[in-house]
Amino acid sequence: MKAKHQRLALVGLGLVTIMGASGLALSALQDEAAFFYAPADVVGKAPPVGRAVRLGGMVEAGSIKKQGDGVSIAFTVTDGKASVPVTFSGITPDLFKEKSGVVAEGEFRADGSFAADNLLAKHDERYMPPQMKGKMAAAETLDTKTAQQ
Amino acid sequence: MFHAYANPARFLKIARPLTPMLIWTGIALAAFGAWAGLTQTPPDYLQGETVRILYLHVPAAWLGMGGWSGIAIGSIAYLVWRHPLAALSARACAVPGALFAAVCLITGSIWGRPTWGTWWQWDGRLTSMLLLFFVYLAYIALSRADGQRGGDGRIPALFGLAGTVLLPIIRYSVVWWNTLHQGQSLTLTKSTIDNAILWPLPFTLVGFTLLFAGIVLMRMRAMLAAGKVEARMRRMAAA
């Protein structure tokens, strides 16, 4: 074996080792590195009351309700498998609307509902001009139908 | 076959006319893409006009990661074949790569404020990209120190190799973990961005990439020239 081939093999081995190590570290980090809990993650095993956590998912259609004081809202976050009722008072981001992604920062209450003190809107990977929105909504309804079946 | 271009004299003969060609074509394409992206495309149905930042953000993210791929390839080639031009090309990618990584982080933050409602969050994609920026700074410091101490460049090359670990982490962060950053919009075969919004992006993408290549060639030529000056000074001092 020439010295050059030996170095090539060593570098290759080094690369494989680095990738393998990072793969192991990543799979171990899976839950720790998650940015938020999905509703299905917290059903039955909600994080302790009072711990600051994030809850993420879709705002359920028709669930946003304005409260009597004018600054508070209540809505439901769902991931298709489970849903969690959320309350929040303050200014919501522009992109916060029904059937769109949201990440709520706050804490769980003893009854399993979530008290948010900050809302972040989550954008999805779809970009389109406004006149196509109608077509998209039609496609989305189809999607939810197939998901329900 | 690559050994023919690994000769510095032959490299310079090709790099000298290629540099202005790459830079001017790159500037023209990027300028056209930016103009088209600012004036010729519709706004997004949800984000409105802020969507236009993608014509800069996406090329910056691509080159931030592409720059480190350049460092990795140059480092491997140097470690295996011991050719000084390979080490030079790796070092030349560092500063423009770090610059584009910074542009990616800054434009992303400006977009995040109106869209998400926050300048910064420690989610998987944002954090791993920030880490890449810091690793660039470390690489720049390390290769400079190695050069000043008269090292043979093997330590920066090993660091360049090890840093490669971040590239798959950044790429798959939005798949492995739930993140605030949206999933992949573009792959080689499909796009979830409507064509009416997408079409100027290839212009800025190719434009900035050519500009990047031109800057790398420019930096390599400057490093070769600096090496020549140093060698001549040493000869004069000895005489």
TrEMBL record, chain A:
<feature type="topological domain" description="Extracellular">
    <location>
        <begin position="29"/>
        <end position="149"/>
    </location>
</feature>
<keyword id="KW-0408">Iron</keyword>
<feature type="binding site" description="axial binding residue">
    <location>
        <position position="127"/>
    </location>
    <ligand>
        <name>heme</name>
    </ligand>
</feature>
<dbReference type="GO" id="GO:0046872">
    <property type="term" value="F:metal ion binding"/>
</dbReference>
<comment type="function">
    <text>Heme chaperone required for the biogenesis of c-type cytochromes. Transiently binds heme delivered by CcmC and transfers the heme to apo-cytochromes in a process facilitated by CcmF and CcmH.</text>
</comment>
<dbReference type="GO" id="GO:0020037">
    <property type="term" value="F:heme binding"/>
</dbReference>
<keyword id="KW-1003">Cell membrane</keyword>
<keyword id="KW-0812">Transmembrane</keyword>
<keyword id="KW-0472">Membrane</keyword>
<dbReference type="GO" id="GO:0017003">
    <property type="term" value="P:protein-heme linkage"/>
</dbReference>
<protein>
    <recommendedName>
        <fullName>Cytochrome c-type biogenesis protein CcmE</fullName>
    </recommendedName>
</protein>
<keyword id="KW-1133">Transmembrane helix</keyword>
<dbReference type="InterPro" id="IPR036127">
    <property type="entry name" value="CcmE-like_sf"/>
</dbReference>
<feature type="binding site" description="covalent">
    <location>
        <position position="123"/>
    </location>
    <ligand>
        <name>heme</name>
    </ligand>
</feature>
<keyword id="KW-0349">Heme</keyword>
<dbReference type="GO" id="GO:0005886">
    <property type="term" value="C:plasma membrane"/>
</dbReference>
<comment type="similarity">
    <text>Belongs to the CcmE/CycJ family.</text>
</comment>
<keyword id="KW-0201">Cytochrome c-type biogenesis</keyword>
<dbReference type="GO" id="GO:0017004">
    <property type="term" value="P:cytochrome complex assembly"/>
</dbReference>
<keyword id="KW-0735">Signal-anchor</keyword>
<feature type="topological domain" description="Cytoplasmic">
    <location>
        <begin position="1"/>
        <end position="7"/>
    </location>
</feature>
<dbReference type="Pfam" id="PF03100">
    <property type="entry name" value="CcmE"/>
</dbReference>
UniProtKB/TrEMBL annotation, chain B:
<dbReference type="InterPro" id="IPR003557">
    <property type="entry name" value="Cyt_c_biogenesis_CcmC"/>
</dbReference>
<comment type="similarity">
    <text>Belongs to the CcmC/CycZ/HelC family.</text>
</comment>
<keyword id="KW-0812">Transmembrane</keyword>
<dbReference type="GO" id="GO:0020037">
    <property type="term" value="F:heme binding"/>
</dbReference>
<feature type="transmembrane region" description="Helical">
    <location>
        <begin position="155"/>
        <end position="177"/>
    </location>
</feature>
<feature type="transmembrane region" description="Helical">
    <location>
        <begin position="197"/>
        <end position="218"/>
    </location>
</feature>
<comment type="function">
    <text>Required for the export of heme to the periplasm for the biogenesis of c-type cytochromes.</text>
</comment>
<feature type="transmembrane region" description="Helical">
    <location>
        <begin position="60"/>
        <end position="81"/>
    </location>
</feature>
<keyword id="KW-0813">Transport</keyword>
<keyword id="KW-1003">Cell membrane</keyword>
<keyword id="KW-1133">Transmembrane helix</keyword>
<dbReference type="Pfam" id="PF01578">
    <property type="entry name" value="Cytochrom_C_asm"/>
</dbReference>
<dbReference type="GO" id="GO:0015232">
    <property type="term" value="F:heme transmembrane transporter activity"/>
</dbReference>
<protein>
    <recommendedName>
        <fullName>Heme exporter protein C</fullName>
    </recommendedName>
</protein>
<feature type="transmembrane region" description="Helical">
    <location>
        <begin position="93"/>
        <end position="112"/>
    </location>
</feature>
<dbReference type="GO" id="GO:0005886">
    <property type="term" value="C:plasma membrane"/>
</dbReference>
<dbReference type="InterPro" id="IPR045062">
    <property type="entry name" value="Cyt_c_biogenesis_CcsA/CcmC"/>
</dbReference>
<keyword id="KW-0472">Membrane</keyword>
<dbReference type="GO" id="GO:0017004">
    <property type="term" value="P:cytochrome complex assembly"/>
</dbReference>
<feature type="transmembrane region" description="Helical">
    <location>
        <begin position="21"/>
        <end position="40"/>
    </location>
</feature>
<keyword id="KW-0201">Cytochrome c-type biogenesis</keyword>
<keyword id="KW-0997">Cell inner membrane</keyword>
